[in-house]
Fold this sequence. Notes:
The protein is an alpha+beta fold. Helix content is 12%, strand content 27%. It is globular. Mean pLDDT is 90; it is low at 201-215.
Amino acid sequence: MLDRSFYQKPTLQVARNLLGKVLVRRWSGKNLAGKIVETEAYVGPHDLACHASKGKTKRTSIMFEAGGCAYVYMIYGFYFCLNAVTEPADYPAAVLIRAIEPLDHLSIMRKLRKNPAQDTNIGSGPGKLCMAMGIDKKLNGQDLTGNQLWIEDRNLNVDRIVASPRIGVDYAGEYRDKPWRFYIDGNPHVSRLRMRGHLQVAPIPLLTRRGARTK
């Protein structure tokens, strides 16, 4: 299981480092698990695509906690999205888990997802993976080092990482095209592609909290 120090680092670094890690959800006595294959970084109050850019509210208050807890919210009145809160306390930032490759208890995950025709459609999107793993608003604020929802390192292979603009943030002004979406190149469980601005990232330089390259 990843400890809190993993999350309390610059958000862009956490977003990349989560690729290949395994998301685990304790569900009805079983550990449902999926390899994280796609993430997006939301980097503090200056990032106009980040919920916290509008300040601290009841909804976003969890983002102001120290990194290492879950931020779960609803979209479209039906789907849930899971984020890992990052950075030290009072710097509101998070990584959205956008897609997983199912690993353990695939039959249960398939059933929770209403039996899609293909395995690649079980967790290939933030709402899909939450449905497949029984993740909903009740897990908002959940400790990611606890026994209900956590992320672990199984030393799974990650070949090439690609960085691209985030999906669905056309409203974000100068932050619209920031290449803060990361995914494992060629993995069929990645969600739909935003076709422009894809960059191969290998090796990946360390980035500061605000997205500047370190020397």
